């Protein structure tokens, strides 16, 4: 947190139109800077000056089908770390085709809800636990129909897969593990070896649009200055502490969002460091 | 209102980029859930799990010209109820081509301003009253240049047309009438038989962008759990009551929007039920 | 300011998806009305009823490459005044191709940060001062890496070029100069003859996304009722005064944005008129 606030790192986002403004404002409130791009030439040129990148597959347009796999491939070829939010994984042929293509050019961190994590693990053939009936685990639109516990196996499998793939293809130190963050009542963050559970936050975070999307953006902001696990843990903890502050000072979803952005700005690194983390 | 808050129904939106965030946040604040899509495969697959859908024709992109008529046709083929906001009806060849195509695959509810309702009725050949000079009734951009009274005939004609068409083609009970809601100083809602007038709200609703667009989204949220007339009336009444609350607690358009979202969350079904409705 | 608040002029925007909502809300809060369009037929038909137009080249989509040059050409052919925000000038082949095309169909006002102004002047072959190494002046994403002082020569050269071109091709009075506004710690506004420097504002304006983008929109709102220099000066001064008010009444970037929109609505023409302006 200190490093982000001191260096205001740039994290670039290719994200959905619903919450694109909140993603940028959350990144700024957390202490970073933001740039949003959609054209492959824009994304790749901006990636060269950005510390990390974020891809969120909500609100697809026709040209994304080719653009997103190309961007993922080029980010990985350039060894640029990136965060994926596989919004609504399992819904729509185009989204499925894009998410399947990411298997060969995987992200550094995945941030999603439980249903999306399970759907993505199934799609990539990694989820041996619940292989029985993948169709049970399709999200209800953008909302999760599964609880975080039930996504533990899928999250661990995905984190291991990301780490393996980056060790194979990356010039980075192969010992840096990738990470998966599953948002829910008690968030789960894992590097494929240890599973961390983070409680707190506010139920109002489900009554504004983009709490999850913007968390993905802030994970990218942290990823610009730290390893994947630290980025996923820090951003998730900041979100929980900020959610609690906003909960006590707001009177509905409108004032909650305002108070939440203020809290992202005002919560201290010390408050985040004092968070309780359950190691499973 | 009780049913929405108890069941948090999903209403899907294909809407403009200016107010897409407010549409989603208003649907959440009213008690529903939101999903936004643009690709036909996304929209149709999400429609299968959504209670209702919303199409708003602001900020068109090139691919909408084919996508929107296809989506309307498939929603109707699948008997999925949907709300249309014909933003800026009358402006631009592409918008006109899309709105004309909707005549053959019409929505369940139309929510618009007076100029848009008149322009759409003219476009569909339904507005016998003012057939003299259709070009007089083109909106000044996205703002209405006509008052609500002058749109009464067009609104009634549109509501009857929607009801007739759905009775012909739908497997639903043919006795459920469709509805048209015209926003203005005193809103008008009609099922083609009775004309209801709803007063109140706040003049500040014209000083934030998206009061009308997001009302269309909340009509869709209510349409997910009720008949078209009830959905149009309830959402319009909620908006007027919430506008009044926000008016008294805000100091300009910034704080008005925040207070308005809080009020959508906090206004009770009883407050809405006590609203005065003028039956014309 | 009085004229805008009395006549609520329409300014149309073709702008990026990150801050499109703030652009519209800022235009409404300043007293104008807003319409956002992307299709050439929409933009041109709306331009016929709008007082001024705004083009912002953030978040490009593939079809913009042809659409934006066509729109600029048609706006100029129709003698419609427009404001350009050359967001991230210098990044990406598509953006460069679009901005180069604008040289032949230039805007009436440019509103940008220092790096973008320098990059654009270099791109158009106008910046003799720093011709040595254009690559030094590429913006760090959407943030400026140059200070306002260093953009003075580029801003003056651009303003003169715009004025010359419009004098050649326009049917307007050739004596009306165009303007360039460079945002930074002390803003710079010039008509190519006089350089005005405007201090004040708030450092929090860099901690919300879209302060610059929405200023471009409000310049267009003012341009609908005044000459380019007056529009650029008035909008920039309003932004500084509103930023100061919001600074004292907010507790972080969330409440700053809310207070800022309120202040755009509440700051008086007299407060703006009392602003100190340094003439260089």
From TrEMBL, chains A, B, C:
ATP binds at residues 111, 183. Its cofactor is Mg(2+). Its EC number is 2.7.1.50. One of its GO terms (biological process) is thiamine diphosphate biosynthetic process. CDD domains: THZ_kinase. The keyword ATP-binding applies. It comes from the Bacteria. It is an enzyme of class 2 (transferase). GO terms for molecular function: ATP binding; hydroxyethylthiazole kinase activity; magnesium ion binding. It catalyses: 5-(2-hydroxyethyl)-4-methylthiazole + ATP = 4-methyl-5-(2-phosphooxyethyl)-thiazole + ADP + H(+). Keywords: ATP-binding, Kinase, Magnesium, Metal-binding, Nucleotide-binding, Thiamine biosynthesis, Transferase. InterPro entries: Hyethyz_kinase, Ribokinase-like. Pathway: Cofactor biosynthesis; thiamine diphosphate biosynthesis; 4-methyl-5-(2-phosphoethyl)-thiazole from 5-(2-hydroxyethyl)-4-methylthiazole: step 1/1. Substrate binds at residues 36, 210. Catalyzes the phosphorylation of the hydroxyl group of 4-methyl-5-beta-hydroxyethylthiazole (THZ). Belongs to the Thz kinase family. This is Hydroxyethylthiazole kinase. It comes from Bifidobacterium breve DSM 20213 = JCM 1192.
């Amino acid at each position: 947190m200190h490093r982000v606030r001191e260096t205001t790192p740039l994290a670039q986002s290719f994200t959905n139109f619903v919450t694109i403004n909140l993603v940028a404002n959350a990144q700024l409130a957390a202490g970073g800077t933001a740039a949003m791009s959609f054209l492959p030439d824009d994304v790749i040129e901006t990636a060269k000056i950005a510390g990390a990148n974020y891809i969120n597959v909500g609100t697809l347009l026709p040209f994304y089908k080719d653009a997103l796999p190309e961007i993922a491939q080029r980010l990985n070829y350039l060894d640029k770390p990136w965060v994926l939010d596989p919004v609504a994984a399992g819904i729509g042929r185009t989204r499925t085709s894009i998410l399947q293509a990411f298997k060969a050019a995987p992200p550094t961190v995945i941030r999603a809800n439980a249903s999306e994590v399970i759907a993505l693990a199934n799609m990539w053939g990694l989820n041996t636990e619940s292989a029985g009936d993948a169709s049970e685990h399709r999200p209800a639109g953008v909302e999760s129909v599964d609880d975080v516990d039930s996504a533990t196996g899928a999250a661990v499998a995905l984190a291991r897969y990301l780490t393996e793939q980056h060790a194979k293809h990356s010039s980075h130190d192969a010992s840096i593990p990738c990470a998966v963050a599953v948002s829910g009542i008690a968030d789960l963050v894992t590097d494929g070896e240890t599973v961390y559970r983070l409680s707190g936050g506010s139920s109002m975070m489900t009554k504004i649009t983009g709490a999850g999307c913007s968390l993905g953006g802030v994970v990218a902001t942290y990823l610009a200055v730290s390893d994947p696990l630290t980025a996923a843990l820090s951003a998730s903890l900041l979100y929980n502490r900020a959610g609690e502050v906003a909960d006590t000072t707001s009177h509905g979803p409108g004032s909650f969002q305002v108070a939440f952005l203020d809290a992202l700005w005002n919560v201290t690194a010390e408050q985040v460091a004092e968070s309780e983390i359950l190691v499973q």
